């Protein structure tokens, strides 16, 4: 099974399946996120990193959804634990400044990295009929051109802020990025210390690793590469499928996301992770669909990994 030191648990307020968050208000989702993070940090076998996403979905009635934002950095600053877990809150590039990028260790506080997100939610989010984005042609020049320009501007902005931190004689925090295709890969290879990707959705494991190897070599960087996966877990695969069906019913349509989805037992997830590490990735980032899935990760997946890898 996967070494917990190579595992990241990635949290989103309410869970990564919108159905898990339905019926809760924004403050309730934020409170649950804090509770979930505390459960991970107090686990018998904590992960190496705990990522905290800054987006969430809030249901407005039965058929409308609004996307909200969480102050992930502020939340991370108030989390505590005696573990060696590093927190990784997500921050929009537009919100990044020298203070956020400066590594300022505080006695008793957990270390913090930063995941950069290119793009920021508008202040006024209109309700939408589905929490899932519309299909996009990833090969269209009309899509790729503006995307490349956005990521180039973001790269220059973050690099300048990082240089400012170094010029002050301070140590910058490690940077992460979630990347799906070439423009984000290039951005991440140029400025990030850790890159999370989505094998199986935007390319095979070998294709993604090959492209990133070329880009990081050209950039003179050596970031660690993590593979993201979303998990819906149960005691058996049948139970997990029933749970996914229930979550889908709450939303009114099948689950769609930007990663591969493991719907099965903890052993099924462990096999996916083991195969991914064996393919050449440095680690995995697991996104639980909801709180029940997080409980399986904390109580079964991480302890089993520890017993298997370090006995």
Automatic annotation (TrEMBL):
GO terms for molecular function: oxidoreductase activity, acting on paired donors, with incorporation or reduction of molecular oxygen. This is Luciferase-like domain-containing protein. It comes from Gordonia effusa NBRC 100432.
